[in-house]
Design goal:
The structure holds 2 protein chains of 2 kinds.
Chain A lengths: L1 H33 L4 H31 L1
Helix pairs in contact in A: 1-2
Chain B lengths: L1 H31 L3 H34 L8 H17 L6 H8 L1 H13 L2
The chains are: A mainly alpha, B mainly alpha.
Chain lengths: 70, 124
């Protein structure tokens, strides 16, 4: 049962992070391709966006490892 | 363009700087106070989150460069970042006499708090 709980936690978090990362990276790539002179600003926004999106799957992995370990 | 890129580098250096301040406070707390497990856990978590941010910074820079040069990037390195967080938790669960698990988790998420606070004050 613990294994299923860990798998669901990591899997759902990874789905969310995948969709979020895809949206952020896609739009940023589009923006840089249109206006290469704005690369720094767009990269900074992408940096913060990806960091915030990845916080949740990290919590998911942590919960999964705690469930597996306990 | 160089000036524009330097805003990105400056943001990354600022995050690392705040992280190092926090890390030094935690090391001081570990040395002085009796809450050694909590502070050691915070140190482990902040160190891992610093690696995560450095990895993210490098990958994003590579993506930007690849787009301007018309090349392709294969991976963003999300899996390796998740696995380093898992490694930190594994270390904390393996050595509970040295690391407090809750402190490790709080340390892992500390860099995101720093980024949010910095973004709030930078955009003000």
């Amino acid at each position: 049962m613990n294994l299923i709980a860990a798998a669901i936690a990591v899997g759902l978090a990874a789905i969310g992070a995948g969709v979020g990362n895809g949206l952020i990276v896609g739009r940023t790539v589009e923006g840089i391709a249109r206006q290469p002179q704005l690369r720094g600003t767009l990269q900074t926004t992408m940096f913060i966006g990806i960091a915030l999106v990845e916080a949740l799957p990290i919590i998911g992995v942590v919960i999964a490892f705690i469930v597996l370990g306990g | 363009m160089t000036e524009n890129l330097s805003t990105y580098e400056n943001a990354f250096r600022r995050y690392i700087k705040y992280c190092l301040y926090l890390l030094s406070i935690c090391v001081l707390g570990w040395a002085v106070t009796s809450y050694k497990q909590v502070f050691l856990g915070l140190v482990l978590g902040i160190a891992v989150s610093m690696y995560n941010v450095w990895s993210m910074h490098r990958r994003i820079d590579r993506v930007g460069q690849a787009v301007t040069e018309g090349k392709k990037v294969k991976t963003m390195g999300s899996l390796s970042r998740l696995m380093t967080a898992g490694l930190a938790v594994l270390i904390a669960t393996r050595f509970p006499e040295h690391f407090n698990l809750i402190a490790v988790v709080v340390g892992l998420l500390m860099i995101y708090l720093i980024m949010l606070i910095d973004f709030y004050f930078a955009s003000k």
